[in-house]
Design brief:
10 helices; elongated; Aminopeptidase; alpha+beta; single chain; 6-stranded mixed β-sheet; 4-stranded antiparallel β-sheet; Alpha-Beta Plaits
């Protein structure tokens, strides 16, 4: 690629444009399962700008947007893949989460960090190429997907139905000076303890499912999982009990505290390193709980992995991701980063704590698509104020790096 083309593209990155986009995306609520309004907005925006649009129906009435900037032909294809579902909002916000605000180098609002800042960066990268009038040989695909927070529902659908690019970049919020190529796997599962309900005046004849779950939680937190450790991921494996609910019956009736619960459920997430499997993690938990049941014959349990959809957690297993260091996409993003910034990135490969996360690169990699993570940083305002933000200067820098990577990859000869 020529320096003229690169400079045309870099000069076409427009901070006003990506800030307006970022603010609009924030203002449209898009919790998991409720992403279609954002997908529709992006679809209209990019269709009006000349992109080829495919609206993929992942579930009845639930859509994601695949926008393609068509190449002239003969080049490789590159996908920018970003999720439009957002995390639940913590209590204690001081700002209106749906009214985006700019304070210094921060854009505040719901989902700004994870990952509407990244979505704005990848769309701006494509827009910079389009507005520069520099032509790509291969297609540039902008995939705004749903359900990453369910283990990759949208990207799983995309990988089954296409389009399948030659390479991909996922702009998760790991920082504009990091290029991440490794992350943990995630095994989410629901564990149920089953008891015997009785009114508290006959509690001696009951089996308290909540009491049994207390034993289960202590046991699973003490498990030494049978996985091969990795020096670059010293905090893995790690287990978190994310949800607990108990009551009468499988629907957890909680209208009467006078009854001992006969069903209690926790939903857990176990993060494990490359080389491990979700099935092996589950087997370790089963062994530990089977022994607990021997010690306490009244303890009955069940496991569902992944958890049923009604819990609104991960519905898919996320496998670990570890990109081979000789993949071209890494070389391309590194070279683009150096050109944009004039220096080396702070972190390449395994970057902590971000590599303890998991994301849609897992699904892309499994589908045979070399990919990595490079996106704008963000965070929460303080330890006591959970207002979420994305870093504005990072959005611009990432947009420039992604745009130059697209210029490079999409002009490689298609074999």
């Amino acid at each position: 690629m020529s320096s003229v083309e690169r400079n045309k593209i870099l000069n076409s990155v427009d901070s006003r444009r990506f800030l307006e986009l970022g603010k609009t995306l924030i203002s449209i609520p898009s919790f998991k399962g409720e992403e279609t309004p954002v997908a529709n907005y992006i679809s209209k925006l990019l269709k009006d700008r000349g992109y080829q649009i495919e609206m993929q129906e992942v579930e009845p009435g639930r859509y994601q947007t695949i926008a393609t900037l068509k190449g002239t032909g003969g080049g490789k294809s590159l996908m920018f893949n970003g999720h439009i579902d957002i995390n639940p909002l913590a209590a204690g916000w001081e700002r209106d989460p749906w009214s985006p605000t700019i304070e210094g180098d921060r854009l505040y609002g719901a989902g700004s960090r994870n990952m509407k800042g990244g979505v704005a960066a990848m769309i701006e990268a494509a827009e910079a190429i389009r507005c520069s009038h520099v032509k790509l040989k291969g297609d540039l695909i902008v995939a705004c997907v749903v359900g990453e927070l369910q283990g990759g529902e949208g990207t799983h659908h995309l990988c089954q139905n296409g389009p399948i690019p030659d390479m991909a970049i996922v702009p998760e919020p790991f920082g504009a000076n990091n290029i991440v190529t490794c992350h943990a796997g995630s095994a989410e599962m629901a564990i149920h303890t089953l008891g015997r309900a009785r009114h508290m005046n006959r509690m001696e004849d009951s089996i308290d499912a909540i009491e049994k779950m207390v034993k289960v939680i202590k046991t699973i937190k003490d498990i030494k999982f049978n996985v091969c450790p990795r020096q670059d991921l010293p905090g893995l494996p790690r287990l978190n009990v994310g949800n607990i609910i108990g009551g009468i019956g499988r629907d957890y009736n909680r209208t009467e505290a006078t009854y001992i619960a006969d069903v209690c459920t926790i939903v857990i997430d176990v993060r494990f390193p490359p080389g491990g499997t979700a099935d092996a993690i589950k087997a370790d938990i089963v062994r530990a709980l089977d022994q607990l049941s021997v010690d306490d014959p009244d303890l009955k349990y069940e496991i569902e992995m992944p958890p049923p959809k009604k819990y609104n957690c991960f519905t898919l297993i996320v496998e670990p991701f570890d990109l081979p260091k000789d993949e071209y996409i890494l070389e391309s993003v590194l070279n683009s980063y150096r050109f944009v910034t004039g220096h080396e990135p702070e972190g390449v490969g395994t970057v902590l704590p971000w590599s303890y996360s998991c994301d849609d690169t897992s699904k892309l990699h499994k589908a045979g698509i070399p990919c990595l993570l490079h996106g704008p940083a963000g965070g929460i305002h303080s330890s006591t104020i959970p207002d979420e933000y994305t870093v504005i200067s990072d959005i611009g820098q990432v947009a420039r790096v992604l745009a130059l990577s697209a210029l490079d990859v999409c002009n490689l000869a298609k074999q």
